[in-house]
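Explain the record.
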Amino acid sequence: MKRILFLVLCICVLSMKADAERIVGNGAEQYYEEYGDTLKIDGSTTILPIAQKAAEIFMMKNPEITVFVSGRGSEIGINALINGTIDIAIASREAKAEEIESGKEKGVILMAHKIALDGVVPIVHPSIKIANVTMEQLRNIYNGKIKNWKELGGPDESIVVYTRDIHSGTYTVWSEKVLHRDTIRTDAFVVATSSRMVRSVAENKYAIGYIGIGYIDKSVKALKIDGKTATEENVRDGSWPIVRSLYMYTNGRPGGLTAEFIDFIMSEEGQNIVTKAKYISIK
């Protein structure tokens, strides 16, 4: 009976992508002992839609298994794997050198499994009459040198800047590839998840933000960068300037349920999940 109730809850939560940043949140550990075979996944909100759908299908194929999926950010997911509280960390960036070293100190070898490709895309409100920005303009918007839309040919209104929190892999990639680790302007609004970034920009006519390609919808407008559009072709060939790989991390070479789930996401069926989530498959 508990199993059936849990699956109903999972399906309900999964059907509400915009609000489903977490299937199991704080205090999740108290649930784990109530189920038999379990698999615990945590990390990037970028990869969350892929992990959620994969978990749903995996459980339907294996009704004796329960998969818990959370989305608290790449950094938190990797640290949870290092601390032994989860089985798989989902991360929208590569593990940092200090994370790899921290893992080794605790006997954990962070093994990366690349499951998809992604392009990080600047987004604005659909009413903004700007279609293209340069990388230099993006950098200057985020470091505070460009403050008004009129400097880019838009309305005479202040640019409202949204960024991700420091635990986010998307933030790390944006900081490295757009800002070149320059300091983000102090008046930028920080949001914790990808779906909140979309909602924030959609609700503010003069906002700018950035998301993974899978979160683009009609409520926001994706900008071109240097004349390039974030298409599958441009992401695959690297001509889109903000390309990254999406990962699942395990403690060394996986075995048991962890290996089965990784194999599933790498299979043709699993890669179809990647494609349906609007990311780019690796096969």
